[in-house]
Amino acid sequence: MVTFVFRCNKDTNIIPSGIRYIIMSQQSDTTSDKGSKLARIAERIKAAYDYCAGGVWRDSRETWKVKAVKIANLSVRGFLNADLQTQACAMTFRTLLALVPALALLLAIARGFGFQDLLQQQLYYSLPSQHKALEAAFGFVDSYLSQASEGIFVGVGIVFLLWTLISLLMSAEDAFNSIWDVRSGRSIWRKITDYIAILLVLPVLMICSAGLTLLMSSTLQHLLDFDFIRPAINWLIDLCSLILTSLFFAGAYILIPNTKVKVVNALVVGFFVAVAFQILQWLFVTGQMYVTRYNAIYGSFSFLPLLLIWSQLVWLITLIGALLCYASQNAGQFNYYIDVNNISLDYRRKVILAVMAVIAKRFAETLPPMTATEIAQRYKLPISLVTPIVLSLHRAGLINFLAHPGDFGEHPLQPAMDVSSLTCGEIMRRLQSVGSSDFIPEFDNEFADAVSLAENMTSAMTDVADKTNITSLNISI
Q: Which pick of 41, 179, 340, 409 has the fewest CB atoms within 10 Å?
């Protein structure tokens, strides 16, 4: 084999034309390969973005990856639409107003159990970044409790204390209900009973958790003399604190919103929120260099802006956790939501007949009635479409909701009339009359031909559908 070696300078004219052509071809091939790779990467990125932004809602698979993308999509959209920053600011104001009464209630209960000093130590331990704020608050609390035990101020002080705390809980419930899209809050009697229970139970739980942490610390204190086991003991104490914080947030997500929240979702989200809370605490503790700057500007009031910033961030984390809890529980309800919002009348009519046929055939064959959620899951229908259809059938007098203490989606459904004589035409005829009509003045006179044609079309459709009984449709139940 003969090898030709060409030595050349920067002047490429001394390279033979044939070899120059080969070199230029290879360079162009390399450039085109790079361009095609970049184009493929860009296409993949765009496809992934389109899938995450909207295409995932047409994916009915139940894999954890698909569910994670749906939860992330719903969380981001909820964060952008719910304006959580503004809600966190409002909750910060409510918290500042209720801070002293809340601490007064806690310390009053702790004093009755003989754990006042223990509770104060636990608060210092749990909120190391707010040491000055807690010292000022404890001073206010001592004055508050001393005045509240004298004369007429006893009754006024108790009323003011309860009002500020209940106002804080009402604001928290409104914020959580807004995230969960709950239109109605608790009744006045449920608010009284539930809020009083929360105000009595949570302080006792906090005192118990403080006692548990101190008990573990004192019990394991003698083991800290051994250097090799000290990291494990400290880690165990921090883990217990993390678990208790997780349970606190999970309890808030379960008890505060006026809807049924799954315990598993609340526990998982509560753990992640507790981790974020611990990270926030660590950031505030390690960022002491900024405290000196605040001291130079605000002097003895330097704790106030730090308290406001910390409180707003805590509420923002809490509201984001509520949003994640809502997204993880309701991600499946938004399947095909883009298509559902743009559904055609013809396709909606098909789904209506299918849902009504399932309800009627199960009743005719004496099978247990299904709920709207069960129908959606059994036939892979979007719950966001099944829910309004079921409501329309109910308003048309075609189905009834059986009594059930749970949410709307858990009410079993049964026909409201004899299914042996119920035709598809009668269903369409009744649904045609659901809603407002004939409310535009002079409309029938101005558009008489259009009104007459529309009525003839409806009559023709229902006359043809009257020949088919709803229970005769071939649907697997």
A: 41
